[in-house]
């Protein structure tokens, strides 16, 4: 039996998970201009922080003399980095092109992404002629026609009026429009390059984006770009080769489309092509067939071609399979490794697109690009932000993180150095970096756990592609992104209702159903579905015969009750709060529920697993310790903001809890590692009442003699003498500290009487204050940019040192640490090393603007730095809370 498939293996792996579950980082190489000494330093720093590997991405230059992509200099540096990563035990992945989407100078007009162009107008009765092909200066410089008329359609009446159109065939390269008796409608459709060039391209990588429906174009890119990369870095040094998200804007044509359409659909395309821009029942049929053909061409001529090439080199092919072209959930099946992007555990995200495909097609590991845009702009993200967003991906079925990302930067005399124009900069320039290892160990443990056994999903949400395909394309004011149009087609309240009420779901399309057992999933929802292919109808009938429930709906009204009529919640949480999420994995002899508080409020909830086993254990995700156990009944959890625990159900005897205060549940509410959890019907700790001073009361307090408030401290900034302060203390109130990013030492000395010092004692910094993050565009939050909705009592990390002995770091709720073992009667000293973010330094970074100007002077405008003027929006550093020593009884 494989490791992790039995309870004993689960316990062992939980405490010592293998390194392949560590989070990775996208490693941006600007230029690509890199130096070996710095490559070594950055890889070493990543390894030391528990990062498991890198995905190298070659983007726009920031230096005036960057080597070109695929130059001998670049390829030599790439080989060195791969070898050094291997020596450090790091996975090393390669992106098979610069920027996105794939393309470059090797892609001429005939291989470039192309699109349909429509000219619809009224014409008088007079006869006319139109050239069927025209040359309009090829943008690629490769020669040949850049635009070609495909067909001309003629109908009576005015534009917009219903009409029967007839196609005019070209004769000797010319379309001849005969004379008529009155006004007519003319539709001319032509094919032309989209004109899109590679976005954020490295030096020497400029050029058109390739045609993702053409195997010839795909092979040209593999020959010109991928082959040199794999010649420089042998396969035994590579974890996977990678394709980023599909952003081939407007590409809805390929030169072979007419013959491929007729071969696949059984009737000619050109006589009906005009129906793409005409509403009606017949048009819907044409549009379904048209976009299904585009999806198939993308799958077979791009994804499968790249996968087969990678297999020939002995490496797996990983892809973010969503966007344009219109990739379906099942399109992932043509790749080896599936990847998503975007947080939102109750939504239909690109992350859920990927994890659903992995579940349907049996992949044990599925990754996501994580922390894209996190707390924009760069350097504002906190470790708590990273933890909170990671939770959202875990709840969506992800078990491998690819952090976005780590910007390579040379050592500089001024400013912060090099960083990406958008997204977080998650490297050791962040003052909070010394605590990064705690986050990576936490995520490593959870990712490993979420690979064990098999996922439990009770509900399938059917993607009605035959209802969505007619809405695709700019011809009807839609996009070519099947994920985006699916998200708009399905009422968002449907997935939210499923998740908030204790079930999980996967997305399925018609092909995915062909590989699923109709009896395996209790419920399938058909949202806003009117057209179902014949094969899917047969599957649904088999599902019904097997006792499954088929729910047709356009909204979430009554949905919860209808699901519950078939199957109860997998993990019921009450009272329902909307921010407690769970994900379930099943082993042969155990069930695992990861339970996460995704919100800013402390929650005490009862949980009731549907699947009964004789015993349960509750595991701390921070320490790995078993912190509660019991048999039968509900399990009560006291979860702090953005805190998680694991419930393990099994049929072995209830284990005895031994060692450490983390098992003393009656007194441990809010202690790191204990989580304030108790089994059965007992509830620990009360709700926690916040006083004006920011001190949180709980059942662990034994009266006024059990608390020592620590309000008076000295503070020492680097290079300065200590100065006395009274908490709360915010660095930015001193104008001289506005741009300070770094670590500051706080120190206090106090007396303890013997009775207090002899018992268990914690230092408690108080609870955070929930905040409304507001609209996504407020406070520097751009687009799909995650940030926690909590003002924390430590900004952002504090290392606690008691009487010269390090006791631990605090960077996430609960901001409580056991320090009793280091205290003694009489005089005691506590030091706090408090680190903020690099946002303050970012606000004063003028060097980056010089770098941008220099880059644009040499290479044109390949990017624009974003939101840097908002670097200090809402930023506060220091200690806004007042810590107390609290006796734990």
UniProtKB/TrEMBL annotation:
Signal peptide: none annotated. Coiled coil: none annotated. Transmembrane segments: none annotated. SUPFAM superfamilies: Galactose-binding domain-like. InterPro entries: Galactose-bd-like_sf, Ulvan_degrading_GH. This is Alpha-L-rhamnosidase. It comes from Microlunatus endophyticus.
């Amino acid at each position: 039996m494989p490791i992790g498939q039995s309870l004993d293996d689960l316990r062992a792996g939980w405490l010592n998970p293998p390194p392949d579950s560590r989070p990775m980082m996208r490693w941006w190489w600007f230029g690509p201009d890199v130096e070996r000494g710095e490559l070594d330093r950055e890889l070493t720093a990543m390894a030391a922080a528990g990062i498991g590997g890198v995905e190298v991405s070659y983007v726009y230059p920031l230096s005036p003399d960057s080597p070109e992509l695929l130059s001998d200099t670049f390829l030599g540096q790439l080989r060195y980095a791969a070898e050094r990563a291997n020596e450090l035990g790091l996975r090393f992945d390669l992106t098979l092109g610069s920027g996105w989407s794939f393309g470059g100078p090797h892609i001429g007009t005939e291989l470039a992404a192309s699109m349909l162009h429509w000219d619809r107008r009224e014409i008088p009765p007079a006869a006319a002629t139109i050239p069927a092909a025209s040359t309009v200066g090829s943008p690629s410089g490769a020669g040949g026609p850049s635009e070609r008329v495909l067909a001309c359609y003629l109908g009576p009446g005015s534009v917009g009026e219903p009409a029967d159109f007839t196609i005019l065939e070209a004769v000797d390269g010319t379309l001849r429009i005969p004379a008529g008796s009155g006004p007519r409608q003319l539709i001319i459709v032509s094919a032309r390059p989209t004109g899109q060039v590679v976005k954020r391209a490295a030096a020497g990588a400029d050029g058109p984006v390739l045609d993702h429906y053409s195997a010839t174009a795909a092979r040209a890119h593999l020959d010109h770009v991928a082959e040199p990369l794999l010649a420089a870095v042998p396969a035994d040094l590579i974890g996977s080769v990678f394709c980023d998200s599909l952003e081939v804007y407007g590409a809805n044509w390929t030169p072979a489309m007419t013959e491929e359409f007729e071969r696949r659909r059984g009737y000619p395309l050109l006589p009906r092509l005009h129906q793409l821009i005409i509403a009606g029942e017949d048009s819907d049929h044409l549009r379904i067939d048209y976009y299904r053909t585009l999806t198939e061409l993308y799958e077979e001529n791009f994804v499968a071609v790249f996968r087969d090439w990678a297999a020939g080199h002995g490496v797996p092919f990983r892809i973010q399979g969503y966007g344009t072209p219109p990739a379906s959930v099942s399109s992932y099946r043509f790749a080896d490794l599936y990847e998503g992007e975007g947080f939102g555990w109750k939504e239909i995200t690109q992350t859920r697109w990927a994890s659903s495909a992995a579940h349907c097609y049996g992949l044990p590991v599925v990754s996501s690009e994580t922390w894209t845009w996190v707390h924009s702009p760069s350097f504002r993200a906190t470790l708590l932000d990273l933890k909170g967003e990671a939770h959202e991906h875990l709840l969506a079925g992800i078990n491998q993180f690819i952090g976005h990302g780590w910007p390579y930067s040379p050592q500089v005399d001024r400013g912060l150095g090099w960083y990406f124009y958008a997204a977080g900069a998650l490297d050791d320039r962040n003052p909070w970096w010394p605590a990064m290892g705690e986050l990576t160990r936490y995520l490593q443990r959870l990712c490993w756990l979420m690979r064990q056994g098999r996922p439990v999903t009770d509900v399938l949400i059917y993607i009605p592609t035959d209802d969505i395909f007619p809405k695709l394309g700019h011809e009807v004011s839609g996009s070519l992104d099947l994920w985006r149009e699916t998200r708009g087609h399905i009422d968002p309240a449907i997935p939210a209702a499923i998740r908030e009420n204790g079930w999980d779901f996967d997305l399925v399309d018609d092909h995915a159903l062909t590989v699923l057992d109709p009896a395996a999933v209790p419920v399938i929802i058909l949202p806003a579905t009117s057209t179902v292919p014949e094969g899917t109808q047969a599957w649904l009938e088999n599902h019904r015969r097997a006792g499954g429930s088929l729910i047709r709906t356009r909204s979430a009204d009554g949905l919860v009750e209808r699901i519950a009529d078939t199957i109860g919640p997998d993990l019921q949480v009450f009272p329902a709060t909307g921010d407690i999420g769970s994900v379930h994995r099943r082993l042969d002899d155990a069930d695992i529920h990861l339970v996460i508080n995704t919100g800013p409020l402390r929650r005490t909830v009862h949980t009731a697993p549907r699947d009964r086993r004789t015993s349960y254990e509750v595991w701390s995700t921070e320490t790995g310790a078993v912190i509660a156990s019991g048999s039968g009944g509900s399990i009560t959890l006291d979860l702090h903001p953005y805190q998680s625990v694991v419930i393990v159900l099994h049929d072995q005897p209830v284990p005895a809890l031994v060692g450490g205060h983390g098992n003393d549940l009656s007194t441990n509410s809010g202690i790191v590692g204990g989580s304030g959890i108790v089994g059965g019907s007992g509830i620990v700790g009360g709700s926690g009442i916040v006083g004006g001073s920011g001190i949180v009361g709980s059942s662990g307090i034994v009266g006024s003699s059990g608390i020592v408030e620590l309000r008076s401290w000295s503070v020492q900034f680097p290079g300065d003498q200590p100065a006395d302060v009274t908490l709360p203390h915010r660095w930015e109130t001193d104008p001289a500290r506005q741009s300070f990013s770094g670590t500051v030492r706080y120190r206090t000395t106090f007396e303890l009487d013997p009775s207090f010092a002899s018992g268990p004692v914690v230092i408690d910094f108080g609870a955070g204050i929930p905040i409304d993050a507001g609209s996504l565009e407020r406070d520097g939050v751009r687009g799909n940019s995650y940030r926690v909705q909590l003002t924390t009592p430590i900004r952002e990390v504090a290392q606690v040192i008691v009487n010269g002995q390090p006791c631990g770091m605090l960077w996430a709720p609960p901001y409580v640490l056991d320090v009793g073992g280091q205290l003694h009667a009489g005089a005691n000293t506590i030091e706090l090393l408090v680190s903020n973010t690099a946002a303050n330094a970012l606000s004063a970074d003028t060097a980056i603007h010089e770098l941008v100007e220099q880059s644009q002077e040499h290479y044109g405008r390949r990017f624009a730095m974003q939101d840097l003027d908002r670097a200090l929006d809402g930023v506060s550093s220091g200690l806004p809370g007042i810590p107390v020593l609290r006796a734990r009884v």
